[in-house]
């Protein structure tokens, strides 16, 4: 039967799996596959594996328990190996890389920061600081049928929004990076111009959280900061 893989840990990890269950309905039983100094937390793979809420929660719960007790390399939901023997062989084959990654993540947590800005505030800033945007805006108000000028204004505003968000994103990402060990930049979302993950030492997690809150206070009400974590360190595996 195919083997569902949750995470890779050191073989001496506490591996407290009591009270947890794996994916599937009925829930599969968790077990470990060990090879030398490494271990993989696995279970049987259900025949109809899909990203159902119950299975996503089960997967996440296993990762959170492992992370609470030590370093773990989290696997994305749905990763399946041919069988336990092949999983053990993969651990042996990649032992140097896995061991190095576990060492890098030991005592560290991932936090994700997303930032958005009020659109009206940004538009007011552009009209205040760009003489050409003000000129086109005034012209189109006085001449509702001036389609060419409306298109020019739209293109100018779109360019200004992108340029200002990129500049602000770089500034914010760099400011928060001083409180973290590593940074992984994600793609902006539809509503957030900044989407960055940070690898933070466990004993400095409170300081990082405080740095995010202080930056949010400094930027004011026009900005919305979303801090998520601690998370499985997917961005740094």
Global morphology? elongated
- Percentage of residues in strands: 15-25%
How confident is the prediction overall: mean pLDDT? 91
* SS summary, helix count: 7
Secondary-structure-derived class:
alpha+beta
Low-confidence stretches: none
Q: Count the domains.
A: 2
What is the distance, rounded to the nearest whole angstrom, between the alpha carbons of the first and last residues?
27 Å
The tally of strands reads 9
Give a quick account of the main beta sheet: strands, pairing sense, barrel closure. Answer: 5 strands, antiparallel
Estimated helix fraction: 40-55%
Using only C-alpha atoms, the radius of gyration works out to 24 Å
Please provide the ordered H/E string of secondary-structure elements: EEEHEEHHEHHHEEHE
In short:
With 237 residues, the chain is α+β, with helices and mostly antiparallel strands. It is 45% helix and 23% strand.
